[in-house]
Amino acid sequence: ALMRGEAPAPNLDGLRVNQRRALALLDAGLETSTLLAGERGDELQRALQPLADRFALALRTSHNGRRLAGRPRLARRAVAGAIDRIADALLALDTDSGTIEDANPAAGAMLGVKRDALLGVPAQSFIAPGAQSDLWTRLDGLSEGSDGLHFSTTLVDAGGAPIEVDVSATPLSTRSRTLALLIARPKAPIAHS
Protein backbone atom coordinates (compact mmCIF):
# COMPACT_ATOMS: atom_id res chain seq x y z
CA ALA A 1 0.00 0.00 0.00
CA LEU A 2 2.89 2.36 0.74
CA MET A 3 4.39 1.74 -2.70
CA ARG A 4 1.07 2.59 -4.37
CA GLY A 5 0.52 5.58 -2.09
CA GLU A 6 -2.78 4.15 -0.84
CA ALA A 7 -2.10 3.40 2.80
CA PRO A 8 -5.44 3.42 4.63
CA ALA A 9 -5.89 5.57 7.71
CA PRO A 10 -5.25 3.52 10.86
CA ASN A 11 -8.40 2.67 12.78
CA LEU A 12 -7.65 3.17 16.47
CA ASP A 13 -11.14 3.55 17.90
CA GLY A 14 -11.73 1.23 20.81
CA LEU A 15 -8.07 1.02 21.77
CA ARG A 16 -6.92 2.41 25.11
CA VAL A 17 -3.63 4.02 24.19
CA ASN A 18 -1.48 6.40 26.20
CA GLN A 19 -0.90 8.98 23.48
CA ARG A 20 2.35 10.43 24.80
CA ARG A 21 3.96 7.05 25.29
CA ALA A 22 2.72 5.73 21.95
CA LEU A 23 4.10 8.79 20.14
CA ALA A 24 7.40 8.52 22.01
CA LEU A 25 7.65 4.84 21.02
CA LEU A 26 6.80 5.72 17.44
CA ASP A 27 9.56 8.36 17.37
CA ALA A 28 12.04 5.93 18.93
CA GLY A 29 11.10 3.23 16.41
CA LEU A 30 11.55 5.63 13.51
CA GLU A 31 14.90 6.79 14.80
CA THR A 32 16.10 3.22 15.36
CA SER A 33 14.99 2.03 11.95
CA THR A 34 16.76 4.90 10.21
CA LEU A 35 19.96 4.16 12.15
CA LEU A 36 19.76 0.46 11.27
CA ALA A 37 19.17 1.27 7.59
CA GLY A 38 22.68 2.72 7.39
CA GLU A 39 23.33 4.59 4.16
CA ARG A 40 19.66 4.39 3.18
CA GLY A 41 18.48 5.76 6.52
CA ASP A 42 17.51 9.18 5.15
CA GLU A 43 15.52 7.56 2.35
CA LEU A 44 13.74 5.31 4.82
CA GLN A 45 13.03 8.30 7.09
CA ARG A 46 11.43 10.21 4.21
CA ALA A 47 9.31 7.17 3.29
CA LEU A 48 8.13 6.41 6.83
CA GLN A 49 7.56 9.96 8.09
CA PRO A 50 4.22 10.48 6.28
CA LEU A 51 2.92 7.20 7.75
CA ALA A 52 4.08 8.17 11.23
CA ASP A 53 2.41 11.58 10.85
CA ARG A 54 -0.85 9.93 9.77
CA PHE A 55 -0.68 7.52 12.69
CA ALA A 56 -0.09 10.39 15.14
CA LEU A 57 -3.03 12.32 13.67
CA ALA A 58 -5.27 9.25 13.84
CA LEU A 59 -4.22 8.70 17.45
CA ARG A 60 -5.05 12.28 18.41
CA THR A 61 -8.41 12.25 16.60
CA SER A 62 -9.58 8.79 17.70
CA HIS A 63 -12.63 8.65 19.94
CA ASN A 64 -10.46 7.84 22.96
CA GLY A 65 -8.00 10.63 22.09
CA ARG A 66 -10.79 13.19 21.84
CA ARG A 67 -12.39 11.93 25.04
CA LEU A 68 -9.11 12.12 26.98
CA ALA A 69 -8.43 15.59 25.66
CA GLY A 70 -11.82 16.76 26.90
CA ARG A 71 -13.43 20.02 25.93
CA PRO A 72 -10.95 22.55 24.60
CA ARG A 73 -9.97 24.99 27.32
CA LEU A 74 -8.45 28.09 25.84
CA ALA A 75 -6.77 29.30 29.03
CA ARG A 76 -5.13 25.92 29.67
CA ARG A 77 -3.86 25.65 26.08
CA ALA A 78 -2.47 29.17 26.34
CA VAL A 79 -0.59 28.30 29.54
CA ALA A 80 0.77 25.07 28.05
CA GLY A 81 1.84 26.96 24.93
CA ALA A 82 3.59 29.58 27.03
CA ILE A 83 5.44 26.91 29.05
CA ASP A 84 6.62 25.28 25.83
CA ARG A 85 8.12 28.61 24.74
CA ILE A 86 10.20 29.15 27.89
CA ALA A 87 13.90 29.03 27.02
CA ASP A 88 14.87 27.47 30.37
CA ALA A 89 14.29 23.78 31.01
CA LEU A 90 11.12 23.03 32.97
CA LEU A 91 10.66 19.62 34.57
CA ALA A 92 7.71 18.49 36.68
CA LEU A 93 8.81 15.63 38.95
CA ASP A 94 6.52 13.42 41.00
CA THR A 95 8.01 13.68 44.49
CA ASP A 96 6.79 10.18 45.46
CA SER A 97 7.82 8.10 42.45
CA GLY A 98 10.67 10.30 41.19
CA THR A 99 9.41 10.17 37.61
CA ILE A 100 9.33 13.05 35.16
CA GLU A 101 5.64 13.82 34.70
CA ASP A 102 5.99 16.74 32.31
CA ALA A 103 8.71 18.73 30.60
CA ASN A 104 9.03 21.49 28.07
CA PRO A 105 10.96 21.22 24.78
CA ALA A 106 13.88 23.16 26.28
CA ALA A 107 14.34 20.38 28.86
CA GLY A 108 14.50 17.80 26.10
CA ALA A 109 17.00 19.89 24.15
CA MET A 110 19.18 20.40 27.24
CA LEU A 111 19.19 16.68 28.04
CA GLY A 112 19.69 15.62 24.42
CA VAL A 113 16.38 13.77 23.92
CA LYS A 114 12.93 14.58 22.58
CA ARG A 115 10.57 16.03 25.16
CA ASP A 116 8.13 13.11 24.96
CA ALA A 117 10.95 10.65 25.62
CA LEU A 118 11.39 12.25 29.08
CA LEU A 119 7.83 11.59 30.24
CA GLY A 120 7.43 8.73 32.68
CA VAL A 121 11.21 8.23 32.95
CA PRO A 122 12.85 8.18 36.38
CA ALA A 123 14.46 11.58 36.91
CA GLN A 124 17.40 9.81 38.52
CA SER A 125 18.64 8.79 35.06
CA PHE A 126 19.36 12.48 34.29
CA ILE A 127 20.91 13.42 37.65
CA ALA A 128 24.64 13.02 38.21
CA PRO A 129 25.30 10.22 40.74
CA GLY A 130 27.07 12.56 43.17
CA ALA A 131 24.15 15.01 43.14
CA GLN A 132 21.27 12.56 43.57
CA SER A 133 21.17 12.41 47.36
CA ASP A 134 21.20 16.20 47.77
CA LEU A 135 18.50 16.70 45.14
CA TRP A 136 16.18 14.07 46.63
CA THR A 137 16.62 15.63 50.09
CA ARG A 138 15.57 19.00 48.66
CA LEU A 139 12.60 17.47 46.83
CA ASP A 140 11.50 15.69 50.02
CA GLY A 141 11.45 19.10 51.70
CA LEU A 142 9.23 20.42 48.90
CA SER A 143 6.81 17.51 49.27
CA GLU A 144 6.57 18.19 53.00
CA GLY A 145 5.47 21.77 52.47
CA SER A 146 8.58 23.93 52.27
CA ASP A 147 8.57 26.97 50.05
CA GLY A 148 10.48 27.38 46.83
CA LEU A 149 14.17 26.61 46.68
CA HIS A 150 17.15 27.89 44.70
CA PHE A 151 20.25 25.72 44.37
CA SER A 152 22.90 24.42 41.99
CA THR A 153 23.23 20.80 40.90
CA THR A 154 24.64 18.62 38.16
CA LEU A 155 22.47 16.88 35.59
CA VAL A 156 23.67 14.51 32.89
CA ASP A 157 22.46 14.43 29.29
CA ALA A 158 21.49 11.31 27.37
CA GLY A 159 25.14 10.79 26.41
CA GLY A 160 26.32 11.00 30.04
CA ALA A 161 27.92 14.45 29.74
CA PRO A 162 27.56 16.54 32.94
CA ILE A 163 25.55 19.77 32.84
CA GLU A 164 25.98 22.24 35.71
CA VAL A 165 22.66 24.03 36.30
CA ASP A 166 21.09 26.60 38.59
CA VAL A 167 17.66 25.37 39.69
CA SER A 168 14.57 27.08 41.02
CA ALA A 169 12.13 24.58 42.50
CA THR A 170 8.61 25.04 43.80
CA PRO A 171 5.96 22.55 44.94
CA LEU A 172 2.65 22.08 43.12
CA SER A 173 0.13 20.12 45.16
CA THR A 174 -2.79 18.45 43.45
CA ARG A 175 -5.50 16.30 45.01
CA SER A 176 -3.54 13.09 44.59
CA ARG A 177 0.15 14.06 44.61
CA THR A 178 2.79 16.73 44.92
CA LEU A 179 4.89 17.70 41.95
CA ALA A 180 8.20 19.53 42.15
CA LEU A 181 8.38 22.11 39.37
CA LEU A 182 12.02 22.65 38.47
CA ILE A 183 13.31 25.40 36.22
CA ALA A 184 16.91 24.59 35.32
CA ARG A 185 19.26 27.05 33.64
CA PRO A 186 22.66 25.76 32.46
CA LYS A 187 25.62 27.69 33.86
CA ALA A 188 27.51 27.37 30.56
CA PRO A 189 26.52 26.82 26.91
CA ILE A 190 25.74 23.21 26.03
CA ALA A 191 27.19 21.48 22.98
CA HIS A 192 25.61 18.08 22.22
CA SER A 193 27.55 15.76 19.97
Write up what this structure looks like.
The protein is α+β, with helices and mostly antiparallel strands. It has helices at 19-36, 41-61, 63-69, 74-85, 105-111, 115-118, 132-143; strands at 89-94, 100-103, 149-156, 162-173, 178-186. A 5-stranded antiparallel beta sheet has the order 2-1-5-4-3. The radius of gyration is 19 Å and the shape is globular. The two termini are 38 Å apart.
User: What is the count of β-strands?
Assistant: 5
Low-confidence stretches: none
Major beta sheet, specifics? 5 strands, antiparallel
Overall, the morphology is: globular
List the strand order in the largest sheet. Answer: 2-1-5-4-3
Average per-residue pLDDT, rounded, comes to: 79
* Helix/strand order: HHHHEEHHHEEE
What's the topology here?
Elements: H1 19-36, H2 41-61, H3 63-69, H4 74-85, E1 89-94, E2 100-103, H5 105-111, H6 115-118, H7 132-143, E3 149-156, E4 162-173, E5 178-186
Antiparallel strand pairs: 1-2, 1-5, 3-4, 4-5
Helix pairs in contact: 1-2
Key features?
5 strands, five-stranded antiparallel beta sheet, 193 residues, single chain, alpha+beta, 20% strand
Q: What is this entry, summarized?
A:
The chain has 193 residues and is of the alpha+beta class. Helix content is 42%, strand content 20%. Strand 4 and strand 5 (178-186) form a beta hairpin.
